[in-house]
Amino acid sequence: MPRSRMPLRTAAALAGSLVLAAGLTACSGSSGSSGSSASGGAKGGAKTVTVYSADGLKSDKGDGWYDKVFADFTKKTGIEVKYVEGGSGEMVQRAVREKANTQADVLITLPPFIQQAGGKGLLQVYRPQGSDQVNGANKAADGTWTSVVNNYFGFVYNKKELDPAPRTWEELLDAKYKGKLQYSTPGVAGDGTAVLVKSMHDFGGQEPAMEYLKKLQANNVGPSSSTSKLAPKTDKGELLVANGDVQMNFAQSKSMPHLGIWFPAKDGAKPTTFALPYAAGLVAKAPHGENGRKLLDHLLSEDAQKLVSEVGGGFPARTDVKPTDANAVELTKLMTGVEVFEPDWADIDKNLAAYVDAWKSATGS
Question: What are phi and psi of 260, to 5 degrees?
């Protein structure tokens, strides 16, 4: 994949099939638990570990990557996983509110929210077993978080209604998309924030990106705190186009026959994307810290990483795990010809509020 040159600092995309650069989905969701009780090794002898996570890796049908690896973890250790799901920003804000009475042991969210969590002092240093096989760009230099599943930003479209698939941002301004296009809310959902990141990259900066998004607002249905809910609407034809991410949408497409994935390009340019890994960290003052460490070790184990594509429809975080299952082959084809750029996450973390405010002003949101 060729290197992209735009104002947001870029880096060369990694070559190869599934060993791609890592670099946001996330939406609102539900909470629940997975596993059964057993021996703990945690504070007070507790037999649980609580995970706060962005959505996309757990399935309502019980066949997602989280469902599988949490069940395996409980079987192996006897520790029950208590799971709470929501938008990337939502999960961080919940952890902030609970800082005086910490409830979560492990936080899993997307950039720039994982960096935000680190900056707010929500994470403690822990380098899980296997993290030495994770690329440096996909983990914190200070050891507070590491990617457990690699992922990429993208859009979805209805394959039945749109043939061929859309190709450019400019096409989405057409009147046929009025009331048939929606993207999740920047600053709330990870994938919604990704719309800002990618548009600023593709259009060459904040001002031209906001000019475009202002025009696009004429076709936009309106805000959505949940990205995952947009794919079913697209599959049914209620929407023609929506934002998403490769891992979540690829998994959803197995039961949504009209759902297709695409990567918008600026007119005359190549399609682009950037990595949005699910990044995990041990929460500061975690009530069951030892159990949290064990879970992080398990998520980065070779056995769990080998299931990322086969079960989760995503990309392994470990560079030494190279799956060859049917999903892995499809995912490699999907990414072929797409430029992968690396955003300046430090800049985005620092200026995210300003970027979101600019978007609100441009769109009247």
Answer: -120, 155
Q: How far apart are alpha carbons 161 and 16 in whole angstroms?
A: 33
The answer for residues whose C-beta is within 8 angstroms of residue 22's C-beta and 6 or more apart is 135, 137, 138, 147, 150, 151, 275, 277, 315, 317
Do residues 325 and 310 touch, judged by C-beta distance below 8 A? yes
pLDDT tens for the chain, residues 1 to 365: 333 333 333 333 333 333 333 333 344 344 454 543 333 334 445 899 999 999 889 988 899 999 999 999 999 999 999 999 988 888 999 999 999 999 999 999 999 999 999 999 999 999 999 999 999 989 999 999 999 999 999 999 999 999 999 999 999 999 999 999 999 999 888 899 999 999 999 999 999 999 999 999 999 999 998 888 999 999 999 999 999 999 999 999 999 999 999 999 999 999 999 999 999 999 999 999 999 999 999 999 999 999 999 999 999 999 999 999 999 999 999 999 999 999 998 899 899 999 999 999 999 99
Distance CA 165, CA 10 (A): 27
Distance CA 130, CA 137 (A): 15
Q: Which helix (H) or strand (E) holds 157?
A: strand 153-158
Which of 48, 46, 15, 54 has its CA nearest to residue 33? 48
The values of phi and psi at residue 351, to 5°, are -110, 10
Alpha carbons within 13 A on the beta-carbon side of 98: 19
